[in-house]
Amino acid sequence: MALExxxxxxxxxxxxxxxxxxxxxxxxxxxxAIQQAFMLQLAQEEAAEFYHIHADKxxxxxxxxxxxxxxLMIMILEKENAIAEWRTLMGATNPSEAEAGTIRxxxxxxxxxxxxHGSDSVETAFEEITFFFDADEALxxxxxxxxxxxxxx
Length: 153
Ligand code: ADP
Ligand code: MG
Fold this sequence. Notes:
Layout: E1 3-10, H1 12-16, H2 20-29, E2 33-40, H3 44-50, H4 60-67, E3 72-80, H5 82-90, H6 103-107, E4 116-118, H7 122-132, H8 146-152
Antiparallel strand pairs: 1-3, 1-4, 2-3
Adenosine-5'-diphosphate binds at residues 54, 59, 63, 93, 111-112, 114, 117, 120.
């Protein structure tokens, strides 16, 4: 298992319902390091860019309206196997299918307003982290191959 970073977002419903503290408590209890965190409200066009892979879905307009409706809390989480582990802690996309104890089971009310976001692969984690953070803020995310470094010296 590799030390990974993933992008986590606390969505507007969870922020309005005052669950930031509950969610961060679960994140820390599972041993994630919160590497970076800030709050930001996206314009709808920015939410559309972030969720571009869902542009063809019937729920796209509702999703981008919701995600730009209020500030988000945006975090980089770091842990061994962070990408899969954060998705496990989030629970299933539809909270009615989320396992007991997961964030979505406890704090989400519906599939469209489901409390948290998490990257789903190494590629999307990199794309999503650099959507919100400068490359030099995304600490140690890209491995520097030592052979390349040696060759350039
Ligand atoms: P996840 O957030 O679990 O990675 P997806 O990437 O499939 O889920 O979808 C992105 C977001 O779009 C979901 O978190 C949810 O807010 C919304 N969404 C997904 N599927 C639906 C759906 N069938 N109806 C309404 N909203 C949906
Ligand atoms: Mg997704």
